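forwarding from the other thread:

> can someone predict this with flavin-adenine dinucleotide?

sure thing
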Amino acid sequence: MDTFERSKHITDTQVVITLRGIGELRPANANTRVSLAAETDEFNMPRAFVSIQPGAEDNTLWDATDRASDDTALVFAGGQPYEVLTEGSFIGVAAGQRAQTVLPFTTGRRDGLGTTHHEAGTLAAGTSSHLVTNADARFHEVNNLYATGPAVFPSVGSPNPMLTGTALARRLADKLAQFTPTVPEPGFTALFDGTSLSGWAMSTIRNQPGRDDSGRFMLIDGALQAITGTDIGLLWNTTPTPADFVLKLEWRTWRAYDNSGVFLRFLTIHSVPVFGYYGVRSVKQECLRMLVLFGEGSLRRALTEHIAHFHQERNHQGKRNLPLFPSPETPLAKSRAFRRTERLGGLLNFYSCAA
Ligand SMILES: Cc1cc2nc3c(=O)[nH]c(=O)nc-3n(C[C@H](O)[C@H](O)[C@H](O)COP(=O)(O)OP(=O)(O)OC[C@H]3O[C@@H](n4cnc5c(N)ncnc54)[C@H](O)[C@@H]3O)c2cc1C
């Protein structure tokens, strides 16, 4: 596209080959910089001006690049006369003669500096402390802030930058995705370090036909991913908890009701097989479906009511149809008169024989 205007008069008798030399300016040249000018833009902000001033080494490289183009042209010419296409016309060059003789290394042959450039290097990466980011494109002074794209190039040539920018972004993503096992903070014990499910087990319901697939949790890149079964899918830690403790954890849910949360001080699950099933499922499916909870206080109240109901009042198949921990006020003697006690406005009901 750059040479379209120049090339549109070419006929079928001509073959045009464009030779383009691309060089890179030496870095850390004080005369090449971006500065804010006194002139302001439409937002009344100072305009940024780019100054590019090649040094002696840059000019040497530029001459060498042009000589290499001439050498290449001679190879293509194959010992024959050839023509150099300029802005307005063709200039003939004798066999074996360098293009420089008709087209000196000056304006007209050379693009101006800055006519082909890409913005880059504002967050240049490297080991030197004067650069903004380190070799992993992490900001030197910040532990968890990274940059990506051409901004991290320590220098940039004329070639298009996106492929390199994309490659660097992928390199950074690979690095960030690498998993390192969790190391507990001082005073804490890791219940799950991201590498093993040792000490964890899936709950199982043993007395409900058709609910015998407990589901499982897969360990993927240091995280647990739940695979649904027909059971409640409860993963529990088999290590006895101390009398008092502080629990720290990280989790992620994709949808609001995907997770029942963390149950603390749970009874040993296999000793009361149906407790887990009814307890967890009722809270999740009955309570949350039928109650709108406003903050922690109302959630605590609902859970307290559920726990009291399922522990003291509801009879459990796995316990020979007896409550787990019958309340002393709950007479179990048979009688013809029954009493109904409500919890949570009738969401939970408990029937007992009248005294
Ligand atoms: C006309 C043109 C043609 C080009 N052609 C090519 C080509 O053919 N091949 C090639 O490899 N490269 C090409 N480039 C260069 C290439 O597009 C850029 O190098 C590349 O897009 C830079 O990627 P980046 O992610 O660093 O920045 P950008 O693509 O500029 O992305 C920065 C993003 O940040 C957003 N942003 C800025 N400020 C804020 C803020 N405060 N809050 C939130 N978001 C913000 C911007 O809206 C933008 O979406 C071309 C560039 C231009 C201008």
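Residues 1-116 form one domain. thats all i got for now
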